[in-house]
Protein: Metallo-beta-lactamase domain-containing protein
Organism: Anaerolinea thermophila
Amino acid sequence: MAPASLQVIFLGTTTLYLSDGETHLLTNGFFTRPPLTQMLFGRLAPSRERIGQALQRAGIQQVDALLVGHSHYDHALDCAEVCRQTGAVLAGSVSTLNIGRGAGLPEERLYLANAGSIFSWGKFRVTFLPWKHSFPRFYPGEIVTPLVPPVPVSAYREGGTFALFIEHPAGSLLILESAGILPGALKGIRTRAVLLAVAGFPRLPAGRERLFREAVLNTGAQRVFPIHHDHFFLPLDNPPVLLPGSRAVMDWLERRCRQEGIGFEVLPPWERTALF
Ligand SMILES: [Zn+2]
């Protein structure tokens, strides 16, 4: 009997919907995508309307758990509102949970993740691995009290960064939603697929190669999918407008993957793709 298949929908930046038909996970859930001027000079708050529209467009009704890798606004701005609209529990750092608290999510729906924390939902097993944010590290530190938007972008402190290792009988995947490198953090991890952030990717060839080795070659990945490559100050189109610099990184990744006999695949936004 064939194992259950695993479907993914790429929803911009590092927002990914994963479903095996029974259990549904979402990472980050960033849909508001405020324009650049608002990010720089204004205050940020989740847009209930945009979140609702995005969930509807993607055909997402219910989510069991929302997994957040770090608490910068382009990852975590909408996490609490997405939980509210989908019924999901929120899993992440102290900082992420304080975003949930600020929005009034009850404590029983807040799952604190530390480096190495493992959670199971249905057939999914999720490990929060320690990881490092890409350089430069904007707004380091923690969100130490419940965060009530609207707030300036600087209020969304990083709160530490996790890599998400998601195991499922259909196949495993590793989500690196920030392109830093923490040498040795992925030791022992074997995965079929890596979803790798393009924004903040190392500029120098040696750094690029080091990240590729840690994330792709050492994990035995057979497939690489770019994420965080879309221009997140604009609405998400299909195909997406790319962030400046994304094309060069994606070309580099594609070339390196080809040299190693590894698949490089770009997920079309909004569309359900069978991953395994
Ligand atoms: Zn970040």
Remarks:
- The CA atoms of residues 73 and 151 lie 10 Å apart.
- The pocket of zinc ion is lined by residues 70, 72, 133, 178 (CB under 6 Å).
- The longest strand covers residues 124-131.
- The mean pLDDT is 97.
